[in-house]
Description:
The structure is a single chain. With 405 residues, the protein is an alpha+beta fold. The protein folds into two domains: 2-333, no CATH class; 369-402, no CATH class. Helix content is 56%, strand content 7%. It contains twelve helices and eight strands. It has helices at 2-34, 39-69, 80-93, 127-132, 135-150, 153-181, 194-238, 241-252, 291-299, 307-317, 328-333, 353-367, and strands at 72-73, 100-104, 111-114, 122-126, 371-374, 380-383, 391-393, 400-402. It has a four-stranded mixed beta sheet with strand order 1-2-4-3, with helices on both faces. Strand 7 (391-393) and strand 8 form a beta hairpin.
Amino acid sequence: xxxxxxxxxxxxxxxxxxxxxxxxxxxxxxxxxxxxxxxxxxxxxxxxxxxxxxxxxxxxxxxxxxxxxxxxxxxxxxxxxxxxxxxxxxxxxxxxxxxxxxxxxxxxxxxxxxxxxxxxxxxxxxxxxxxxxxxxxxxxxxxxxxxxxxxxxxxxxxxxxxxxxxxxxxxxxxxxxxxxxxxxxxxxxxxxxxxxxxxxxxxxxxxxxxxxxxxxxxxxxxxxxxxxxxxxxxxxxxxxxxxxxxxxxxxxxxxxxxxxxxxxxxxxxxxxxxxxxxxxxxxxxxxxxxxxxxxxxxxxxxxxxxxxxxxxxxxxxxxxxxxxxxxxxxxxxxxxxxxxxxxxxxxxxxxxxxxxxxxxxxxxxxxxxxxxxxxxxxxxxxxxxxxxxxxxxxxxxxxxxxxxx
Length: 405
């Protein structure tokens, strides 16, 4: 697996370098337009903006992403099954530290992982995911997210995401400045001809428009390949391809988007967070590979949960269009791994969609401080956190119930 991680890092570093070239080129052209001979200072400004954003991401990126999503840290007592699953995958992945566990109070189904290195990683899942998936499916999702941590994906996604943010910021500043200034250049550029100024303006505008698009394509291409790699690694951890496949199938039928996601954070999630059911996107503009292909690959693995078997299924389903996903050296490190049989996925699901929505709502209320009282008549009384009394009457049977805050 270490060779896989190193190969993963080399590819990501190359794509990130390409995004850096786009950033520097845009800085040079924009500065050259405003000040003749000032391209060098534009390059410096671009680097400064990138460094500031990078420092901000490294100093508080995890907290920012978790805060924006509204995630709340949970304990073993609050979410015992989730905690046990994370603990199991932590041992299977041989991570040096237990990730911190968060739940996002939304009925949407999704999950993501953060952390520049395994020692300070975090796993977050939504209430909707917890209410919908059984244990084996949840294990598949957690294994996928912790595979991102194990493969050192988060660090390079942070670099690329910050690079994208810097490019978008420079583009916005230039286009807005061009609008308010009326397209005028500095008097220091008077030695240049009007024709040269016009050419520079056109080039700068084209760069400002196309650079963010090109950067997003590069950023998303990093994300798509990593999703396949995380699926392959997750199966190796769980030895149960159907667990993740079944979870992805349920995710594909969810029509509740993650409203707080954006283009920079979207690749962090296990499935495209803002795409509602029935909406189509081209492959270039998608943050994730087609979820149907991911499911087909997993279900083509049969009884072998090894990396070579995933590679074979990957090439078969994509008909060789994706090339080799895994380096030859990583395949040699992996032997036959017998897939687990007879998991919870094969059992009937007891809950209807209405029941799942109710369970997700209860998880969200619990995170908000609600107190739950199970009355003898079978009703679950949900007491809001601002209720002042120490007793409450059951609305169904009239029994007085004590409240223990």
